[in-house]
Specification:
Length: 512
């Protein structure tokens, strides 16, 4: 894949992810304003995290690491790719159906294990009930992840990237209708989630069929390819599981303070916007491209792809991180503070947002470093690194809680992310020149940093200048928009002038 096409892939996935995240903001705004932190929203967050946790454990982590490289190579060589995808589909469906049945039976134990602080108050029983409604979502999303892997491996990124948009469209529509009809908003939202999962699966299944990969359900069949995939996928699944353990540890600590689960969830939404648009988009596009290049022994092309992906990712991540550090309060206040949200809630979410902002570059760099391992079907090394990251996260989350309370999980998550990046970077050194960032990256990264710092200074000054407008009803939305646009203008202008960004290349990628 040429650099322009590679960047176009990033932009395609990034556009749909941005749309999904924007609609996700609308969902969270409705949740916070109509329900408010604590109580019902705490229960919703804990229940919805269960299928998402296992989805990443069984589907996204394992299939991005094992299925995509194997399918890419078979597809490129015209070597039974569809048959391999069919066997993987049937095996995954059987495993997830079994998991779903067990989860429905043992839901109280799952809730206790992931939100022990709820035990003894009404949030516990509510979360158990919500969990049994939303957990089947994992089946639809796990299978959708497989079809998304097929589409990404064949260079068709749009449908797979667009599928998550459906969840937020359905959720926002359901909550709006419930409010207008005087119904209970949270119940409409809960029942909408599995319905949205069916719609997402239907979209990517249809797109894969149109791409020529027609998969029909059947009985699981064991084969040498399935054995190899499982061998590669198991460490990847465990590595993804370790990352989910970090989330659970954070939730366990936060559940001891009423409202803290919701505060961290809202802050997570803010930093997940640039992470999803940039990091996840780059990871999705980079992995199949690296797999093809390494199979063709094109080390120079693989190094160029890795360097351009890192350059593109950090060019957007560093300014995003600085913005989260400099103006978290205006962002949270304007986006979330209304209805049941109080100024105290806003302050808490802003603090967590700034802490997560410190870790944003690390979260994104993981997405560019991990494909170096996964493209070689090395999932054991990232698993070992993830275990150490988990140990650091748990030690800090529980150890700091007596001192800084509910903020401990955010500090722990950010620190663990940087530990993970350090290990990945050191471990990738054994791959030789492929894992060494080229001269162009080294030349541009300091220019990008200078431009981002200039933007941070401008945002700090402008936020103080716009303070009255940012707190005025009716004006605060325009004030925040003006603040964001001014920051973007400063960043892209300075970066272009000092050679940190090539805007012409980005425009060509968007048009090609």
């Amino acid at each position: 894949m040429k650099p322009i096409r590679l960047i176009k892939g990033f932009l395609t996935v990034g556009f749909w992810t941005l749309l999904s995240r924007v609609l996700g903001f609308a969902r969270e705004i409705l949740l916070l304003s109509l329900i408010g932190p604590a109580g019902g929203m705490d229960a919703f967050v804990a229940a919805f995290r269960l299928p998402n946790m296992f989805r990443r454990f069984f589907a996204e982590g394992a299939f991005n690491a094992a299925f995509v490289p194997m399918f890419s190579k078979k597809y490129e060589a015209n070597d039974g790719a569809t048959e391999f995808a069919r066997d993987a589909f049937n095996g995954l469906a059987f495993a997830v159906l079994t998991l779903t049945a067990l989860a429905m039976i043992f839901m109280p134990a799952l809730v206790w294990a992931t939100a022990e602080g709820f035990y003894g108050d009404e949030r516990f029983d509510v979360t158990v009930g919500y969990g049994r409604i939303v957990f089947p979502y994992i089946l639809f999303m796990s299978l959708a992840a497989l079809f998304s892997g097929v589409l990404n491996a064949t260079g068709r990124f749009a449908a797979a990237a667009a599928a998550p948009v459906l969840l937020n469209i359905f959720a926002v529509t359901a909550m709006t209708l419930a409010y207008m009809l005087g119904q209970e908003v949270i119940l409409w939202l809960i029942w909408t989630i599995p319905i949205a999962g069916i719609a997402q699966l239907a979209l990517v299944w249809t797109a894969a069929s149109r791409a020529g990969v027609k998969i029909r359900p059947g009985l699981p069949r064991w084969s040498p390819d399935m054995s190899l995939m499982l061998k590669v996928a198991l460490p990847a699944a465990l590595a993804s599981g370790v990352m989910q353990v970090n989330l659970v540890v954070g939730q366990l600590v936060a559940s001891r303070t009423e409202g803290a689960v919701s505060w961290l969830f809202a802050a997570d939404r803010l930093y997940q916007l640039p992470l999803g648009v940039i990091g996840i988009a780059v990871g999705i596009v980079l992995l199949p491209d690296l797999s093809r290049r390494l199979k063709a022994q094109d080390d120079a092309g693989a190094r160029n792809a890795y360097s351009r992906a890192s350059e593109f990712a950090l060019a957007l991540t560093i300014p995003s991180a600085i913005a989260l550090l400099v103006i978290p309060l205006p962002l949270v206040s304007v986006l979330f503070e209304r209805g049941e949200m109080t100024p105290a809630d806003t302050q808490a979410i802003a603090v967590a947002t700034a802490i997560y902002g410190l870790g944003l570059p690390a979260f994104v760099m993981q997405k560019t470093l991990q494909p170096l391992f996964f493209a070689r079907q090395d999932t054991k090394s990232p698993f070992r690194y993830a275990v150490w990251s988990m140990v650091v996260n748990a030690a800090l989350a529980f150890g700091l809680h007596p001192w800084i309370g509910w903020m401990a999980p955010a500090v722990a998550t950010t620190t663990a992310a940087w530990i993970m990046v350090l290990q990945l970077a050191i471990g990738a050194g054994r791959f030789g020149d492929v894992a060494r960032l080229d001269a162009r990256f080294k030349s541009k990264i300091w220019r990008i940093t200078v431009a981002a710092l200039a933007m941070g200074g401008a945002l700090y000054a402008l936020a103080d200048h716009f303070a009255a407008a940012l707190n005025a009803d009716g004006l605060r939305y325009l004030a925040l928009l003006g603040l964001v646009l001014a920051g973007m203008a400063v960043y892209f202008g300075v970066a272009h002038v000092i050679g940190g960004l090539n805007l012409k290349e980005l425009r060509r990628a968007g048009r090609s």
